[in-house]
Amino acid sequence: MLTFLCALLVVGIIILVSKLRRPNISTQRCVHIVVLGDLGRSPRMCNHAIEFEKHKFNVKLIGYAESKLGQKISNNQNIEISDLKSFPKLDDLPAVLVYGLKILWQFGTLIIRLCQLPKPDFICVQNPPSIPAILATLLIAKLRGARLIIDWHNYGYSMLALKHGFQHWIVHLCQRYEFFLGQLADINICVSNTFAKDLGVHMIKASVLYDKPTNLFHIPTIEEKHQIFMKMNTQYSYQSFQGRSNNSTRFTKEDETNNIVCLQDRPAILVSSTSWSEDENFALLFDALKKYGSSEMNNLPSIVCIVTGKGPLKEQFIEQVERERDQYRHIEFCFPWLDADDYPLLLGCADIGVSLHQSSSGFDLPMKVVDMFAVGVPACSVEYDCIDELVKRDQNGIIFQDANDLCDRLQSLLHGFPNRCLKLNNLKSNLSTNQSKENWSKEWETVMKPLLHLESN
Q1: The predicted structure's pLDDT at residue 221
Q2: Residue 158 sits in the same domain as residue 249
Q3: Structural domain includes residue 22
Q4: Could you give the number of structural domains in the chain?
Q5: Span 76-87, pLDDT tens digits
Q6: CA distance 416 to 405
Q7: Do 137 and 123 touch, CB atoms closer than 8 A?
Q8: pTM value?
Q9: Fewest Cβ atoms closer than 10 Å to its Cβ: which of 69, 70, 91, 214?
Q10: Are 356 and 444 in the same domain?
Q11: Torsional sign, CA 178, 179, 184, 190
């Protein structure tokens, strides 16, 4: 009887595997792009989806559809959003148990979804989170005869170490898990040259696919700026953008000849986009702005500070700003979450961008800075190991050490705003003159097409 049951089990497994590996009826190639997180907050993976679709792939974008996606994704018939079911809240159970149950839930829901979808030629997974995403996608790739691509944005174990410290046993376990499974992937790509070298130390050969701006990012015209300012006031309901009349904003107006002009007494706009995670120290920015507002304001403008994004620490910092409102003289805040198509326009309206990304691993580069440069906005970035691969001191931005240093740099850049701030205008001029003709599509074709053995269109 036992022999019969074992034989039946083997036959069942063979039938299941043969079904999962059965070629698709359609001759169109298929790729599964996996994000074990909010798809709307994973622009690089969405950009992958668009490029695969351009190369005649049937794209399945798998993740949590929590935020609104851009029109290039949502209106594309060849890109299917496959929404994963979120883990239910279990507030009454111990945190360790909830964490274990969440991993099992994510592993199970992801495995089932990858088996339900048509057989892929490639599975491309974002890392982090590494647990259980890499293991689940590796198993399905082997089972279904697909090639696995790991896109290394950072190390999962280094993110975990922010909470537990690098000496914790679970961090060491996660590190070994990542490096072992990374060696089993068919293709590894990462975001910086420094990252690729470190992966090489751990026997993982990775190609560098730098983040580059998409065609959505450009230096906006004065008319485009006026339109997004109006939208921020009317649609998003932020009073910091409200003008003195119906056809004006805090920053722009329509003159007597119906032309849009910038107001000379406008405040400066400082923008920082964030995922509100532990590897971004927002206390640096807030402390710098406190000092900025408390200093002598001769030839210095007031600042409207726009912090975009979603994340676990957002509400905590908003509450802190509200409690300390009196300490922010000459500073106004707004914390929007923008539609994917509005974000590039508002970013291009900024006078200065600030990146507080310090990288838990020291190897990844902030995509937000790439976006800032694409819309002609100089970036102030906090210093860490490989940031000089992206930010060139006093050419396209500045690198600062701490809150006092950031405050001094902001005062130096904004002195004489808006027309006589020579340092800031020089940085903007450099960005405008040296506008790179490189974009995401060209970078993707240069790096990915040889790895995927794709023919030229």
Answers
A1: 92
A2: no
A3: no
A4: 2
A5: 989 999 999 999
A6: 19
A7: yes
A8: 0.85
A9: 91
A10: no
A11: positive
